[in-house]
Specification:
Elements (H helix, E strand, L loop, with lengths): L2 H10 L7 H14 L15 H4 L22 E7 L2 E2 L12 E5 L5 H10 L9 H9 L2 E7 L8 E8 L3 E11 L4 E10 L3 E11 L4 E10 L4 E10 L4 E9 L3 E10 L5 E10 L4 E10 L5 E10 L4 E10 L7 E10 L5 E10 L5 E10 L2 H9 L4 H18 L4 H18 L3
Parallel strand pairs: 1-5, 4-6, 5-7, 6-8, 7-9, 8-10, 9-11, 10-12, 11-13, 12-14, 13-15, 14-16, 15-17, 16-18, 17-19
Antiparallel strand pairs: 1-2, 3-4
Length: about 425
C-alpha cells in the first residue's frame, strides 16, 4: 500500500458525522482493495507514482480565488477553494423548487435524502471514489422538487491554488419531471491533489443538462467522477471537456435504471506536451428500451499520453436497447500516444449496438495547402483542430457556454503546438 493511502486511511478515522456508517463501509472496502498497482486493469496505462509517495496534507485556504465568469449565463455559483466551501449558501437567492445545503448543515430531512444517494450511485470499484467517501467532509446537496424547471444554471467550482489535498462531494436529486442544468468546473495549476466526485439521482421524466470542465493543468493532479442513475423516461445530456496535467483521471458511469431513458454524452480532451489524461466511461443498461449515444474526441500533443476506456454493458433483461459509442483521436506528432479501448458486453439478444475507435494524424496535405496560402502554422493547426472537434462544440445546448468555450479551446490549442 502507498504512503499516501496509508495516511488517508489514518485521517479517515477522525471523520464522524451522519454519514459515518457509509464512510466506514467504504473505508473497509478501500482497505480490502488496497493500492491499484500496475496489474490493475483500470489503471494499466495510468501510472500513480506521483500520488503513491505523496504526503496526505490538507490544502490551506489563504484567499478566495477569482471565479471565472461565463458571459450571458445566469448561474448560481457554489465555490470550493482548495477543498473548502467558501460560498455562504444562506445568502444565495434560490428559485422556487430548488434547495441547496452543505453536507455540514443538512437537517434531518436532507440527511435522509443524502443517505439515499451518497455512495449508492457511484460504483464501489472506484478506489479514489472510496477515498472520497471516507474523507470528503466538504460537499453540497442540490435538491430539485418534482415538476420544478430551474432556469439558472447551478455551477460547482473546484479551484485549486495551493499545494495539498482537497476532497469534495456533490449530491444531486431531481424529482419527477424536474429540469436542471449543472456545471462541474475544476481549475488549477498548483502541485495539488483533488478528488471531486458527484452523484446524480434523476427521477422519472426528469431532465438533466450536465457539463464537466476538468481544466487542471501543470503539476495539478485531478481524480474524480460523475455518476448518474436514470429513472423511467429520464433524460441526460452531458458534455465533458478535459485538459491534461501531471495526472488527470475521470470516471463517468450512467446507470439506466428505468425504461425508455435516454443518455447522450459528448467528450473532448486536449493534451499539451508531456501531459496525461485518462477517461473511463461505463454505460449500464439494466432495463429494456434504453438509448445511449457517446462520442469522445481527443487531440494529443507532442509527448502527451491519453487513455480512453469506454464500456457499454447490456444486461440480460435490457431488450430493445439502442447504444452507440465512438472514440476518435488526433495525434499531433509521432511522440503522441493514445491507448483506446471501446468495449461492448451484451447479454440480451434483441438490441442494436455499435462501437468503434480511430487514431489519426494531422493531414499533411491539408496543412501544406494552408501554409502555402500564407496562413501561419499555429493558426493553420488551430483551424484544422477546430474542424475535428467543432461538431461536438456546436451540439452544446446552451449557446452562452459554447461561446465561452470556443476561445478557451483556441488558447489551449496554441499551447499544444508542436515546436
Amino acid at each position: 500500500m502507498s504512503q499516501w493511502l496509508e495516511q488517508v486511511i489514518d485521517n479517515a478515522q477522525d471523520v464522524s458525522d451522519f454519514l459515518s456508517s457509509q464512510r466506514k463501509k467504504s473505508l473497509a472496502a478501500l482497505q480490502e482493495q488496497g493500492w491499484p498497482g500496475k496489474r490493475a486493469e483500470q489503471w494499466r496505462f495510468t501510472p500513480l507514482t506521483s500520488v503513491e509517495k505523496r504526503k496526505a496534507i490538507k490544502a490551506k485556504v489563504t484567499e478566495e480565488p477569482a471565479v471565472p465568469q461565463i458571459d450571458k449565463l445566469d448561474t448560481i455559483d457554489l465555490v470550493f477553494a482548495d477543498g473548502k466551501l467558501v460560498t455562504d449558501i444562506s445568502e444565495l437567492s434560490l428559485p422556487k423548487g430548488l434547495k441547496i445545503k452543505s453536507l455540514k448543515k443538512a437537517g434531518d430531512d436532507e440527511q435522509a435524502a443524502i443517505k439515499s444517494i451518497f455512495a449508492k450511485i457511484k460504483p464501489a470499484r472506484h478506489t479514489f471514489g472510496l477515498v472520497n467517501d471516507a474523507v470528503s467532509k466538504q460537499g453540497v446537496f442540490i435538491d430539485v422538487a418534482a415538476g420544478a424547471k430551474i432556469k439558472p444554471v447551478v455551477r460547482v467550482l473546484n479551484l485549486s491554488t495551493q499545494a495539498g489535498d482537497a476532497h469534495t462531494r456533490v449530491l444531486v436529486r431531481l424529482g419527477e419531471a424536474a429540469k436542471l442544468t449543472v456545471i462541474e468546473h475544476g481549475e488549477g495549476t498548483a502541485d495539488s491533489l483533488t478528488t471531486a466526485f458527484a452523484e446524480y439521482s434523476i427521477a422519472d421524466h426528469a431532465q438533466l443538462e450536465h457539463y464537466r470542465f476538468a481544466l487542471f493543468t501543470g503539476k495539478a493532479k485531478q481524480i474524480g467522477g460523475s455518476h448518474f442513475k436514470l429513472g423511467e423516461e429520464a433524460s441526460l445530456n452531458s458534455t465533458l471537456v478535459g485538459y491534461g496535467s501531471e495526472l488527470s483521471r475521470l470516471d463517468i458511469d450512467v446507470w439506466h435504471a428505468g425504461e425508455h431513458a435516454n443518455a447522450k454524452m459528448n467528450a473532448i480532451y486536449l493534451l499539451a506536451e508531456g501531459e496525461l489524461f485518462d477517461l473511463h466511461t461505463t454505460l449500464e443498461h439494466a432495463v429494456p428500451n434504453g438509448t445511449s449515444e457517446e462520442n469522445a474526441r481527443g487531440i494529443v500533443g507532442d509527448g502527451a499520453r491519453a487513455v480512453f476506456n469506454g464500456r457499454i454493458h447490456i444486461h440480460r433483461d435490457a431488450q430493445k436497447t439502442l447504444a452507440e459509442l465512438n472514440n476518435r483521436n488526433l495525434l499531433l506528432s509521432r511522440r503522441s500516444l493514445i491507448n483506446t479501448k471501446p468495449e461492448l458486453e451484451i447479454y440480451a439478444d434483441d438490441v442494436k449496438c455499435a462501437h468503434g475507435a480511430t487514431v489519426a494524424e494531422i493531414d499533411d496535405t491539408a496543412l501544406y495547402y494552408m501554409l502555402s496560402r500564407g496562413i501561419p502554422r499555429s493558426k493553420a493547426l488551430v483551424m484544422l483542430n477546430f474542424g475535428f472537434i467543432q461538431e461536438l462544440v456546436t451540439q452544446i445546448p446552451k449557446e452562452a457556454i459554447a461561446d465561452w468555450l470556443l476561445p478557451k479551446l483556441s488558447k489551449r490549442f496554441a499551447s499544444m503546438e508542436v515546436k
